[in-house]
Amino acid sequence: MASFGRPSATAPAATWLWALVLALVCAVPLWSQTYLNEQQALELVLQSHPSVQAAGLRMQQQQTLQAAAAQWQPADLFHNIAADPDYGMFGTTAFGFNQAFPARKMTQARRLYYQRREAAAAAGFMLTRRQVARSVSELYQHIGFIQSEAGLYRRLDSLYQSVAAIAQLRYTAGEVSKAEQLALEDKAAQMRLALQTTGHEIEFDRVVLGQVLGIPGQVFPVSGPFQPMSFSLADTALVENSARSVLYRTSIAISEAEQEVVAAQRAPVFSGGLMVQYLPNGRVLPGWQLGLQIPLITKSLRADQAAAALGVQSAAADYRADLLEQRTQLAHLLHEQEKYQIRLEYYTAKGKALADELLRMAVANYRAGEIGFVELTQFAEQAAAIELDYLENLLGLNMAIIQLRTLTGQ
User: Fold this and answer.
1) Smallest Cα–Cα separation from 368: which of 184, 172, 177, 175?
2) 3, part of any domain
3) Distances (CA, A) of 217 to 28, 34, 47, 74, 130
4) Which residues contact 130 (CB under 8 A, 6 or more apart)?
5) In-domain check, residue 62
6) Which of the residues 273, 304, 313, 314 could staple to 98 if both were Cys, CB 3.0 to 4.6 A apart?
7) Domain residues for 323?
8) Tens digits of per-residue pLDDT, 57-75?
9) What pLDDT was estimated at residue 18?
10) Does 176 reside within a domain?
11) Beta bridge partners of 76
12) What is the pLDDT of residue 281?
């Protein structure tokens, strides 16, 4: 007999516990999933990536070194004891210090050197930013490719599912063999397996994207349809203004500044000091001294200057070699861009219509009993090959354009 008396004391506690569990389960995706479009991801990675931070710190380091342009040598503290005719062998004692002053020419040369080191650090900072941004853009393109590939497999899965249902009906009617009906079911299972594989690839790319951005777990990219990117370049000389070229030119400038530092070592260095002389009779005599340091043996200086001149020539040769390499890369990437564009134009003009027609015809003819399993799979695989070739060419085009933009700084 049911009881309608006082409710159980444990009911509110159980209800509260289940509500808490439900709230925790619902809240997990809210803090473990991050959705970012490509621009948001780029802004985040250019602030948080360790390589960018390290490059920024190197730039700050060189800025700080500007204060070290005037190099003061340690002061020379001395205690002299000299013989005196009146007071004997240890008759006179003197205490004092001597300080060499930075040569103006050397200070100017060192200031120029640190300024060019700062410019090189700034160029390295910009190059690092471009390289990190490139890695993020490539990840977004690869994820877009895999998602589009997954869309193709879903279409093929739907096709084989519908054809397998037709084969089941035709098998029941005795029109096809059991082997054909099972083969179509197997084809549908293969499409589902391919779809699962692409799903794992997408999850892996999401994890990698999270690692690059410094975010734990997966980052879900928010993007539009997988479409061709665009790039135009009227003058291949733009590579001379790329981040790589700027960095190499700063290397030449640093070598030239080092040459100036070596040349400044010939400049005379003035020094001055104060001293106090004590006599045994109790008298204290103040004094001062001036000095001039002049390099007399200059063999090592000549060797340093020759080495510095060779350093300038070496840096200039490195720049020319890298410029040649960049122009070669640019020509290759422009060729790749043109190649992929031609293939994509073919797909737009003929390939897409052919793939759609092959799939439509395959299903319609199989439903009508005009073709069998072998012909059906041939048509479907031909259409799938056209679609996959399009996606691969589209990925190749976009990857080439990302490299072109990184190379030219666009």
Assistant:
1) 175
2) no
3) 12, 8, 19, 55, 25
4) 243, 406, 409
5) yes
6) 273
7) 34-221+235-408
8) 999 998 898 888 887 888 8
9) 43
10) yes
11) 98
12) 76
Evaluate if residue 29 carries a pLDDT over 80.
Answer: no
Angle at which helices 243-264 and 104-172 cross, to 10°: 160
Average pLDDT of the chain to the nearest whole number: 84
- Please identify which residue in the block is written with the tokens 């200039």: 316
- Does the reported pTM lie above 0.90? no
Q: Cα dist. 239→137, 230, 249 in Å?
A: 21, 18, 12
Domain of 354, CATH number, reads 1.20.1600.10
Please tell me the total count of domains within the chain: 1
pLDDT band at 394 (very low <50, low <70, confident <90, very high): very high
**pLDDT computed for residue 298 by the predictor:** 73
Q: What single DSSP character describes residue 175?
A: S
- 322: tokens are 């890298």
Q: Which two tokens stand for residue 113?
A: 């050197």
Please name which of 63, 58, 55 lies closest in space to residue 111, comparing C-alpha atoms. Answer: 63
Let me know if residue 27 belongs to a domain: no
**Number of Cβ within a 10 Å radius of residue 73:** 12
The pair phi, psi for residue 383, each rounded to 5°, is: -65, -40
Q: Which of 53, 212, 51 is nearest to 139 (CA)?
A: 212
CA dist 59 → 122, 133, 230, 254 (Å): 6, 19, 33, 15
Position 86 pLDDT exceeds 80 = no
Tracing tokens 């199989």 back to the chain, one arrives at 366
Looking at the predicted structure, is the pLDDT value of residue 156 above 70? yes
Angstrom distance (rounded) from CA 250 to CA 243 = 11
Tell me the pairing of strands 76-84 and 34-37: unpaired
